[in-house]
Structure formats: structure tokens, C-alpha cells
# Entry
Amino acid sequence: MSNPELVRMASESMKSMKPDDLKQAAEQLKHTRPEEMAEIGEKMMNASPEEIAAMRARADAQTTYEINAAQMLKKQVNLNHKSDDLLFVCILCFM
# Structure
């Protein structure tokens, strides 16, 4: 027995996935124990619409957090790289 909201959510999520994302998800599933998969499936099938919405909100928040962290690191690396370049230019000017 399946939860229609769960099926809809999974379908929507898969539509927006890139081929590499699907490959990565499949690879992660290879390393998940069958008992764990059964437990997750049972929880998902018995979840209320509110619980599914909460799961989705948590997943979206985690994704947003990871993207923001990656962008922050990228900015930090770029700033460090620019300051290193500026230091190098200053050193060259004084030679």
C-alpha cells in the first residue's frame, strides 16, 4: 500500500534530478542494508501528509544549508586567492 502524497513527492523530486544525481542516489542505495530500506519504506508509507511535509522541509533546509556553506567556502577561497595575488603583486613591486 502506498501513500499517494509520497509517490507524488518522489516523482516530483526525480523529475528535477540530473543524471549524475540519479547515479549518485543509486550508488548510495547500494550501500543501504535491506532492513534499513524496509524500515524507511514502512515509515514513509505510514507517514501522514504533515509528517511528509516536515520531512520535505528538513530535506530542503539541509540542502539550503549545504549550498550556503559551499558558497561561503567558495567566497572565502576566492578572497584568499585575491589577497595572495595582491601580496604577490606588492612583493614584485618592491623587487
Q: What stands out?
A: Residues 3 and 45 are 5 Å apart (CA to CA). The two ends are 76 Å apart (CA to CA).
